[in-house]
Specification:
six-stranded mixed beta sheet, D-Amino Acid Oxidase, Chain A, domain 2, alpha+beta
Length: about 400
């Protein structure tokens, strides 16, 4: 090696050694904001905060979209059908546009636009309210009568069905991959991600001063956002324990016949029928079925994620009856995840009642994933003192009611 090159590579350390001292190690400055939880809510919040120019650290015990979390699994639906809850319909419309823009920005396929058909025995008050809201918002949707349903959807058994509701601007999002994409974008923007268990530590003057990580590190910040999903009831049991309920939700992927592509994307829409929602087979995963069988609580750390023999029997019976070509098809995969419900199925975005610099963010209530791209933006504005919609502030406040 040439002498000049050697000096260029070693000059700094040689200079320090010549005076008998090692180079000083500068401590890393504390971030402005720490976000705990890298699921759909926390990941998007951290990304928006970083894009706004704030110093942000994102912490998660198991990693973005991990198998224990509510943001786990392959897919989630993005839909605007919410009965008379117009705020969520509005958000879903904007969320769909934002997901498309992020897909283009990141050059990753995260959205499959499928459309949705809801099959019903009658035109219910909820379907009427949904159509009224979507008409008001200018979102294409259609009441479909029985004869037209038979023509459009021969893959379904329509016994007992008299009417349907069709919304073409509905799709399926890649869930776990979406969480990873958000975390990747956050780090590319200069954010810092740490995989560790975080616990609130020092409190003083009505403020949280530090967190303690399972790595032994102590982390301080000006503000803290806890987007812990089902772990909220463990993190803040006195405040959130009575206001959240954890339910176990089982999901099933059933194989589709190789000679019949009517249940695969793009030939099959997402659907709701007989108390079960479903997605077409995407990327060969099989037809996804989500029955509304919340069967008791599920501990997010230690809960068993195995479906029961009775659940397997019931899903095969449903599949053979509702989608006749699935009779005798194999069960390809199952998943059990926690669903964190609030008392009114609204999200929670509010300050901790005793800690002014701590924000509580959660209660996805079974419809949160699609809205993470909207909620993260809203939370980033609230946490940094920027203007937000007073109606949303009131809707997402921590309610007095308990379970």
């Amino acid at each position: 090696m040439e002498r000049r090159t050697f000096l260029q590579l070693t000059g700094a350390s040689l200079g320090a050694a010549a005076f008998g001292r090692a180079p000083a190690i500068q401590p890393e400055p504390a971030p402005e904001i720490v976000v705990v939880g890298a699921g759909a809510f926390g990941g998007w919040t951290a990304l928006y905060l970083r894009e706004m120019g704030h110093s942000v650290r994102l912490i998660d015990a198991y990693g973005p979209g991990n198998a224990r979390s509510s943001s786990a699994g392959e897919t989630r639906q993005i839909r605007a059908s919410y009965g008379d809850r117009e705020i969520y319909s509005r958000w879903a419309v904007e969320a769909l546009a934002r997901w498309k823009r992020r897909e283009a920005e990141w050059e990753r396929r995260l959205l499959y636009q499928t459309g949705q058909i809801t099959l019903s025995r009658e035109w219910t008050a909820t379907l009427h309210a949904t159509k009224t809201v979507l008409d008001h918002l200018g979102v294409e949707n259609e009441r479909v009568e029985r004869a037209e349903l038979e023509y459009r959807y021969p893959q379904f058994n329509l016994d007992g069905v008299s009417v349907g509701h069709w919304v073409p601007s509905t799709g399926v999002l890649k869930c776990r991959e979406g969480c990873l994409a958000v975390a990747d974008a956050f780090e590319r923007r200069g954010g810092r991600f740490t995989m560790a268990l975080a616990a609130p530590n020092q409190r003083a003057g009505g403020r949280l001063r530090t967190l303690t990580l399972s790595t032994g590190e102590t982390v301080s910040a000006q503000s803290f956002v806890f987007a812990c999903g089902p772990w909220h009831v463990k993190m803040f049991p006195e405040v959130l324990g009575p206001k959240l309920r954890l339910n176990r939700r089982a999901i099933f992927f059933v194989g589709t016949p190789k000679e019949d592509n009517r249940l695969s994307f793009p030939n099959c829409p997402t659907f709701v029928t007989r108390g079960v929602y479903g997605f077409p087979s995407i990327e060969g995963k099989g037809l996804k079925l989500g029955p509304y069988w919340d069967t008791g609580p599920l501990d997010p750390d230690t809960g068993d994620r195995t479906v029961t023999p009775d659940e397997v029997r019931r899903i095969h019976e449903f599949a053979a009856e509702a989608l006749p070509s699935l009779a005798g098809q194999p069960l390809l995969e199952t998943r059990v995840s926690p669903r964190t419900n609030s008392v009114d199925a609204h999200f929670i975005v509010d300050r901790h009642p005793e800690l002014e610099n701590v924000w509580l963010l959660g209660a996805g209530s079974g419809h949160g994933y699609k809205h993470g791209i909207m909620l993260g933006d809203y939370v980033a504005h609230r946490v940094t003192g920027r203007a937000t919609d007073p109606m949303l502030d009131a809707t997402f406040r921590l309610k007095e009611e308990t379970f």
